[in-house]
Design brief:
Number of domains: 1
Number of helices: 11
Low-confidence stretches: none
Structural class: mainly alpha
Distance between the termini: 42 Å
Shape: globular
Radius of gyration: 21 Å
Order of helices and strands: HEEHEHHHHHEHEHHH
């Protein structure tokens, strides 16, 4: 969970931003904004993604509290899954995107009668879940055995190598979109995926754990796992602070990437018993503090953008909750 979330931002968001700017040199990408200054060129994001960013901010704020309860419990399930359900309801009750043109498999599914289309989509979900259920245990044990043979602890293999495999298909799709000068669609997919992981994935872990346990039980954390959650939440907070103005510059992408890579590198040294001034727990807390300090600095510097983001999201949520109400005079001016 923590590895997949941090890879999605540390490699996904940062790497795709850098690739987008690099790709702009070979084609015309309207999402790339050229600005004066050292590594100042930026990728401009769709402002419609603001709703996802606000819900992601709310989930990130709650994630800081999760370790304080000793693990993921029913309250976390209620809050995090509730945030995801609320987001889906707002989207469903919001304005319909007039662009309904699809190609390939989605276009074919749209030609089917509604009952058959729904049954097909449900069957695809069930089939995918069955494949994951069959493959995940031998895959995990295989990673542990490979790690043991190479002198790498199983925890490190499961946290970093397994998520690389699970995130690779999504990153490949986004790279394809960027290569076709559809950077905005690519970033929308990455941000929506992060929201899904940071709410639905974390919240339902208590359900999965309880099913495996045979009774209700909160998924417990030890000290290191609590620090992993705080670090993941801190990285998310910093990434959100970067996006509040709907741009991510080359400098910001490099900072995200370097912080991520350096933390993984030092963590690898720790598990290899290389003597460092900090323990693994202290290292995670130190990086968490760096992320939080950087995030607070960006939020303060971009407070007007943050206020505008929150106001726009509140307007979208309000229109979804009360669709029949007329906007007040002067609203939106």
């Amino acid at each position: 969970m923590t590895g997949a979330n941090r890879i999605l931002i540390g490699i996904g968001w940062a790497g795709i931003a850098l690739f987008t700017v690099y790709r702009a040199g070979a084609g015309d990408d309207p999402a790339v904004v050229e600005r004066p200054g050292f590594l100042a060129d930026a990728v401009s994001l769709d402002r419609d993604i603001g709703l996802e960013v606000v819900f992601l901010l709310a989930a990130t704020g709650w994630a800081f509290l999760v370790p304080l309860g000793g693990g993921i419990d029913a309250l976390d399930l209620f809050v995090l899954v509730g945030l995801y359900v609320a987001y889906i309801l707002v989207v469903l009750r919001g304005d319909v995107d007039p662009d309904s043109h699809h190609v390939g498999v989605p276009a074919y599914l749209q030609t089917l009668p509604k009952p058959r289309r729904i049954a097909t989509v449900v069957a695809l979900f069930v089939y995918s879940g069955l494949l994951i259920f069959i493959a995940v245990e031998p895959f995990a044990h295989g990673l542990e055995e490979l790690g043991t043979a190479a002198g790498v602890p199983p925890f490190f293999m499961i946290q970093w190598v397994a998520p690389l495999a699970s995130e690779a298909p999504e990153l490949i799709v986004v790279l394809y979109l960027v290569n076709k000068a559809r950077s905005t669609a690519g970033f929308n997919a990455l941000i929506s995926s992060k929201l899904n992981q940071w709410t639905l994935l974390i919240g339902t872990l208590v359900v999965v754990y309880s099913l495996a346990l045979g009774r209700y039980g909160a998924l417990p954390f030890d000290q290191k796992q609590s620090a992993e959650i705080w670090l993941t939440a801190a990285q998310s907070l910093f990434a959100i602070a970067v996006l509040v103005d709907f741009k991510i510059s080359v400098r910001e992408a490099l900072v995200i990437l370097l912080l991520f890579c350096s933390q993984v590198f030092f963590e690898f040294l720790v598990v290899q018993d290389v003597v460092l001034p900090l323990s693994s727990y202290e290292l995670l807390l130190s990086y968490s503090a760096v992320y939080v300090v950087l995030a607070v600095g960006l939020f303060v510097g971009r407070r007007r953008a943050l206020r505008g983001l929150l106001e726009d999201a509140a307007g979208v949520i309000g229109r979804a909750a009360f669709p029949d109400e007329e906007p007040a005079a002067g609203a939106g001016d």
